[in-house]
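Before going further, learn to read the protein records used in this course. A complete example follows; check for yourself that the lines match position by position.
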Amino acid sequence: MESTKSIWMDGELIPWAEAKVHVLSHALHYGTGVFEGLRAYKNDDGTAVFRLREHMERLLASAGSYAMPTEYSVDELVAAVRETIIDNELESCYIRPITFYETGTIGLNPSGARLRTSIVAFPWGAYLGEEGLLNGIRVKISSWARISPQSFPAAKATGPYINSVLANQDAVRAGYDEALLLTADGNVSEGAGENLFLMKDGQVITPPLSDGCLAGITRQSVMTLLTDDGYTIVEKSILPADLFEADELFFTGTAAEVTPVREVDDREIGSGKPGPITRRAQELFTDAVGGKLEQYHDWLDYI
């Protein structure tokens, strides 16, 4: 990770090295935090954050799901992201806002703990590698089941991500690029940090949220882009066997963007190369974040 000049914490910019929290922070012990990941892109009209307001709205919605009494509004958080990018003189970057409980109690109940909010922005390239974006990645179906949506609120919270950490570690140790998690019932849910799309006979299929996948903002964006481009998107449960019969697969996410999947459990998907719908999704997404598609300009917040 490349450090930058400053980090926004609780309403002020402080030097990167001074952004510290106490070892008794409630979030460190119990995972009581919510977060977001978003990107800013340099294009011909300047630096633009992709779907900034939607990400800040989701951050506050996640906090609400965990009864966190946040003190900042969406407008204030939007302004803070802009301030952080400007102060660090970043043209393209990854942005990580996080709200979490710090000190005040060591019991399970966070009541009395101080709630803190921080925003970090720093340069970060392709999450699954430039080679992966170009030629696709190798994926392993994890032995760890995706946490049930009946166990946690459908929010982007820190604690439940240990599920993704375990799956990703196992996949990487086995020589794969990423993990794919199934539900306890055996349906395909999502990647360790990405949503999944499957193409079969020209139809685009993605698992429903009821199968434990995150309501990804990039997922929704790609669904909109492909639908407007004439494709039919179907949300329905996917079985592991469906993966091996697919013509194409790709992941979506803020970090992953649109990443082709060329193999699952050592089985080639389709031709073993990114297919035409995957390439079209990549093209549309790249043009949207790059400010080249006028109908989606409202997705961009220029700095």
